[in-house]
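Weekly modeling sync, notes
Attendees: AB, CL, MP (scribe)

Item 1: holo prediction request
CL wants a bound-state model with magnesium ion before deciding which constructs to order. AB pointed out that an apo prediction alone won't tell us much about the pocket. Agreed to run with the ligand included and paste results into these notes for async review.

Input as submitted:
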Amino acid sequence: MPSPPYFIDLEEAREISHQYLPKISEEIISLDEASNRILSEDLESLVDDPPFDNSAMDGFAVRYEDSSKAPVILKITQNIQAQGLTNLPTIMENEACSITTGAPMPKGSDAIIPIEKCQIENGQVTLLEPSKPNFIRKRGENITKGDVGLCAGARLTPSRISLCATMGYQNLKVIKPLTIAIISTGNELKAPGESLEFGEIYESNSFGLASLIKLSGHIPKRYESVMDSMDSLRSVLNDASQSCDVILTSGGVSMGEYDYVRKIMEDEGDIKFWRVKLRPGSPPLFGLWNNTPLFGLPGNPVSSHVVFLMLTKPWLMKATGADGPIPKIIHAKLMDSLKSTKDCLTLRRLEIKFTQQGVLAYQPRHQGSGNIESLASADALSLLKPNQSGEIGEEIEVMLL
Ligand code: AMP
Ligand code: MG
């Protein structure tokens, strides 16, 4: 059997993993549940926005012709508010209608004078200056009935949810979130809250990964951490492949004697690649366990987190067709030197300052891949290419966290 691709570029790792996407289904939800969900169909507006010509200001609706004689005195004939109306008032020559923002334009009016440009006395209004053309919001000027306001794949951000409501939708057809197993492995791991024996540490990766999964719009299923043994791993992987759409493991994918995730995937699973040119984060593997896609993430806390960001998150976006959240990549000037590597994309944890001299990047922390504090306190990761110098003063790409 040919051995799976080994120590490959991030791009190649993405290409391979994108060939094994999970089955996606849809569900209908209400607007109240729409935050961070992903639309599964194009949404055509059910109405014009706005549905009628209306005033953009509190003030007076008038005939432009009358306003152009300003200063001019007009008779106030009506008040019109933003509300449902059966009879739209009409104004005639030398008449004005007081109007609130969002109220429909009375018949015969074609101009709005803001309240600040008016003097009101004895049922009359003096217009102090002629109207300008831009205080009327025209029917359909934002979106016309039948226009596609949002496309399938749109991630429902707060403003997009408001747009759905504006277009008249009460319920939305969205992608059903994936259930993602998180299995951390290691004899040394104890749950926070338990007391530690010498040699043990608190299991932390599964909690951070669960949060990353939620932020991606999916549902984490966190397992108790598993001992380094083939039997315990097999049993939990079987359970996960039956109850989840995707499996994330952490730990046990390196070359060590107790790296049983790699061993069990080699012997009984189906590895599609192993090791990626990322630093930190070079050990991951990707494959199938009982046909369920599995990301074998590294055990080191920074590594498991960054591999999720660089590999699993784009895979989840591909699987669901989600258009975001896209990585926020900007340029920054190095204020400390960074160590690059000769073959890996190097992801140093950086503090970013936005200054008048530009965007400045500092590396204030020790960069061990076991140091989760270095990530928790960072604003960005460097995207330092192989052999890039990383000298002070260099402009590099960074990905905001
Ligand atoms: P491994 O890849 O299993 O050799 O783990 C690499 C390093 O990460 C070791 O120091 C482990 O103790 C640590 N580690 C593994 N899994 C976790 C976890 N879930 N939480 C915190 N640290 C971990
Ligand atoms: Mg381990």
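Recorded for review: The domain at 27-47+152-175 is CATH 3.90.105.10 (Molybdopterin biosynthesis moea protein, domain 2).
Action items: CL to compare against the apo run; MP to circulate these notes.
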